[in-house]
Design a protein that fits this description.
The protein has two helices and 22 strands.
């Protein structure tokens, strides 16, 4: 009888142990499920090529570090699986490794647009590219987010193409413009290039020096079907710091490559400095009224006053 009681006690202890282990495992799984992997980039729209993104995110507790990698849009929905390096920029100089502390990471990443991939060629990020936070061990994507580039990124690359012609109210290439001047741009192209349909978009892209101006550049989406589009923009009233202002048009549509116009560059007229009044430059200390006129009383020269020496 004593042995039976002892056996029953051992069984009860085993049951308690198993239940306790199950409870611990369940708690562990529940804790793991509360970790939500995510990555955020700021800014994430209208981003210029070469612009630095502020990146923050979270990662599962077993991830010690993440590698930020830029990929084309085909690599969306890759969280939990490996990405295809043929559709990503895997150049070591463009990747950024960030440590994960308390399930969180932060840092910066330089956005590239157009994106040069490992095997899919060069792609535009105007419709969005994926920023992946990849777990280097075992190599699975922890989180990802989409970053949309400025529509003028890459427009100034390459030669003029297609039938697109650009003219402006500022005149031919090399003309001089003034601060605050309004420039009207006209783009014309052969509608047959796009099958007689409206192009998906037209762009008027403006650079100051070698940097695209997100403020002055504009886009019409979709573009007009008639083969003509117009834009207006204003030369910065404060000048451009002596840099040229350059202008190029682009038209894009399905079934054909993007057409680009010739590049027109303008020199900026210097900002005029108001001329000081001659009366303010006279070495007068006071004014005396005499005979209905004004007489300037000259200040008496004093010793140790070289500014007043004759």
């Amino acid at each position: 009888m004593a042995r039976i009681s002892q056996w029953l006690a051992l069984c009860a202890l085993a049951i308690v142990s198993v239940v306790g282990t199950a409870v611990l495992l369940q708690a562990s799984v529940a804790d793991a499920s509360t970790v939500v992997a995510a990555v955020n980039a700021s800014p994430d729209t209208n981003v210029l090529d070469g612009e630095s993104l502020a990146v923050t995110g979270t990662a599962p507790s077993n991830v010690q570090s993440v590698v930020l990698i830029e990929c084309d849009a085909t690599q969306s929905s890759d969280v939990g699986s490996t990405f295809d390096p043929n559709h990503c920029d895997t150049s070591p100089s463009d990747e950024v490794t960030l440590p994960v502390n308390n399930n969180a990471f932060s840092g910066s990443f330089v956005f590239r647009d157009p994106l040069t991939t490992g095997g899919a060629g060069t792609v535009s990020c105007a419709a969005g590219c994926m920023l992946l936070a990849d777990n280097p061990s075992p190599g699975d994507v922890s989180s990802e987010t989409m970053v949309i580039g400025n529509s003028c990124n890459g427009v100034f690359n390459g030669a003029a193409s297609g039938s697109l012609v650009k003219t402006t109210s500022a005149g031919p290439d090399g003309s001089t413009v003034s601060p605050g001047q309004t420039i009207t741009v006209t783009l014309t192209w052969n509608p047959g290039d796009f099958g007689g349909s409206a192009p998906s978009k037209t762009d008027d892209c403006v650079e100051i020096g070698t940097q695209i101006s997100a403020t002055l550049s504009q886009e019409h989406k979709p573009g007009p079907a008639g083969g003509t589009d117009t834009y207006t923009y204003q030369v910065p009233s404060g000048g451009t710091g002596g840099q040229q202002i350059c202008d190029r048009g682009a038209v894009s549509g399905s079934g054909t490559s993007t057409e680009k116009s010739a590049i027109l560059c303008y020199n900026l007229m210097g900002v005029a400095t108001p001329e000081a009044s001659r009366a303010l430059l006279l070495p007068a200390a006071g004014v005396v009224v005499a005979g209905g006129g004004l007489l300037f009383a000259r200040r008496r020269r004093t010793r140790n006053s070289p500014l007043l020496a004759e």
